[in-house]
């Protein structure tokens, strides 16, 4: 039951993370590119105030729950859950060291106006955004694949020795 709960939490958090990044890549970025720069900077700055809390929370919960799932399971399930955890950690690192510094610059541009390298930095922000979207979606895909292949509970049960399985049957 504990494994199922952890798997459910990791699916939910990672799905929300991948969905948020996917929505941003498919809808927000094209909108950012369609409006005047000063409007983009203002909107982007306000969005980051809220996103900073919700998206970082989703990244932390995704990473830790997938890591916990890996620690509670064995074999292929462990490897896939650990990979999902590493991918969500990659999303966090890309965000923290790629997007966040550029967000700080965008905040300054909203007040002081753009700099000569603005277009280049906005392109870099979009590349980082694409990368974190891909890593989050890949992590979610791995966790869904685990759920579809009879879930981690069965995989954990299969990894027990025959004596452990018999002892478990006798206690239930």
Nutshell version of this structure?
The protein is an all-alpha fold and 172 residues long.
Major pleated sheet: none
Distance between the termini: 13 Å
Unreliably modeled segments: none
Approximately how much beta-strand content do the residues carry? under 5%
Q: Radius of gyration, rounded?
A: 20 Å
What is the residue-mean pLDDT, rounded to a whole number? 90
Which structural category fits the helices and strands? mainly alpha
The tally of beta strands, per DSSP, is 0
How would you sum up the global shape? elongated
Number of alpha- plus pi-helical segments: 6
Share of helical residues: over 70%
Order of helices and strands: HHHHHH
Please explain how this structure is put together.
- The chain has 172 residues and is mostly helical.
- Helices cover 91% and strands 0% of the residues.
- The chain is built from six helices and no strands.
- The protein has helices at 2-34, 37-72, 75-112, 118-148, 151-158, 162-171.
- α1 (2-34) packs antiparallel against α2, α2 runs antiparallel to α3 (75-112) and α3 packs antiparallel against α4 (118-148).
- 31% of the residues are buried.
């Amino acid at each position: 039951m504990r494994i199922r709960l952890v798997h459910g939490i990791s699916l939910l958090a990672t799905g929300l993370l991948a969905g948020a990044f996917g929505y941003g890549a498919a809808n927000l970025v094209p909108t950012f590119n369609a409006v005047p720069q000063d409007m983009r900077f203002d909107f982007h700055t306000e969005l980051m105030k809220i996103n900073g809390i919700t998206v970082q929370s989703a990244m932390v919960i995704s990473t830790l729950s997938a890591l916990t799932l890996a620690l509670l399971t064995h074999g292929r399930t462990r490897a896939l859950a650990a990979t999902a955890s590493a991918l969500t950690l990659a999303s966090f690192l890309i965000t923290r060291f790629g997007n966040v510094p550029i967000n700080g610059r965008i905040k300054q541009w909203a007040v002081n106006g753009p700099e000569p390298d603005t277009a280049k930095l906005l392109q870099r922000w979009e590349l980082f955004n694409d990368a974190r979207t891909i890593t989050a979606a890949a992590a979610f895909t791995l966790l869904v694949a685990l759920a579809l292949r009879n879930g981690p509970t069965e995989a954990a049960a299969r990894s027990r020795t025959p004596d452990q399985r018999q002892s478990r049957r006798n206690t239930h």
